[in-house]
């Protein structure tokens, strides 16, 4: 006689019902037999067998979950630790992202392109990305800084018209003023006390490690912000000082205009972080 089996979750838990118990079930169902006392004993034994297998399965499942959680935790640790380096690679190539418009995970493959020397493809993908989010950036900036609305709108119009001679300097100039209003000091200063002050403000207003990593880029020497005497200065690359002081006359390209937009967008992060920090302080108070 083939004994019925009770499968449990993909066959991992199962036990065989004794023939005598099966026969008792059938006779009881047919109302041909009164349940004897020993039947209760068989049911109890059956339940104990089930509980024992359930405990063993739970133990194995717990071990598997723990191992899986450990792998996830390790992946997250590597992601968190690697994030500052990825955005630094983008910044060294003139690109600056935001927390809201650029997925964290999307940064890694782009940074890999720049790291491995595939510079043209990296710029191509970043230009395409900023082309998609360009309108959202303008809408956010003009709403966030209404006193700068007319200037920003005309700069974006110049960008759309291909008048990069006009758009790039305006984007760079506005990116100077916005964070200065919030930090109370120019982000280009390298005086020790001013840099220390900026670092303290950033630490206080940053909401998490991602936001702090993005904001702290202003404390580093980058090709965009470097002086000509700095080791990070790259001739021919977009440089804020050379554009605004009329030294570079070859800056007017779509690539540089999009990079200037990314720098302007990054400047607005200070306003985002500051207002969020103020809200947190009010809740605590």
List keywords for this structure.
elongated, 0% strand, mainly alpha, 285 residues, single chain
Proportion of beta-strand residues:
under 5%
SSE pattern, N- to C-terminal: HHHHHHHHHH
Mean pLDDT: 82
- Tell me the number of strands: 0
In short:
The protein has about 280 residues and is mostly helical. The protein has ten helices and no strands.
General description of the model:
- This protein is mainly alpha-helical and 285 residues long.
- The protein is built from ten helices and no strands.
- The N terminus is likely disordered.
What's the helix and strand layout?
Blueprint: H1 19-29, H2 37-92, H3 104-115, H4 119-144, H5 149-160, H6 164-183, H7 192-205, H8 209-215, H9 240-244, H10 254-284
Helix pairs in contact: 2-3, 2-8, 3-4, 4-5, 4-10, 5-6, 6-10
């Amino acid at each position: 006689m083939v004994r019925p089996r009770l499968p449990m979750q993909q066959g991992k838990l199962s036990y065989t019902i004794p023939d005598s118990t099966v026969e008792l079930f059938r006779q009881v169902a047919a109302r041909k037999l009164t349940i004897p006392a020993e039947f209760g004993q068989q049911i109890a034994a059956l339940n104990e067998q089930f509980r024992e297998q359930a405990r063993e399965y739970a133990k194995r499942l717990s071990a598997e979950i723990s191992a899986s959680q450990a792998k996830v935790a390790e992946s997250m640790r590597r992601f968190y630790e690697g994030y500052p380096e990825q955005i630094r690679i983008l910044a060294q190539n003139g690109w600056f992202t935001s927390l809201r418009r650029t997925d964290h995970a999307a940064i890694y493959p782009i940074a890999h392109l720049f790291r491995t020397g595939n510079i043209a493809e990296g710029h191509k993908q970043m230009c395409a990305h900023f082309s998609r989010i360009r309108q959202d950036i303008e809408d956010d900036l003009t709403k966030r800084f209404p006193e700068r609305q007319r200037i920003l709108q005309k700069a974006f119009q110049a960008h759309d018209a291909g008048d990069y001679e006009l758009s790039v300097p305006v984007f760079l100039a506005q990116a100077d003023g916005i964070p200065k209003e919030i930090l109370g000091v120019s982000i280009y200063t390298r005086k020790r006390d001013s840099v220390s002050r900026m670092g303290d403000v950033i630490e206080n207003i940053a909401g998490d490690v991602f936001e702090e990593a993005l904001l702290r880029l202003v404390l580093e020497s980058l090709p965009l912000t470097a002086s000509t005497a700095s080791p990070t200065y790259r001739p021919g690359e977009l440089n804020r000082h050379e554009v605004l002081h009329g030294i570079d006359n070859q800056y007017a390209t779509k690539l540089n205009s999009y990079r200037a937009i990314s720098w302007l967008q990054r400047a607005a992060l200070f306003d985002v972080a500051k207002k969020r920090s103020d809200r947190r302080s009010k809740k605590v108070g």
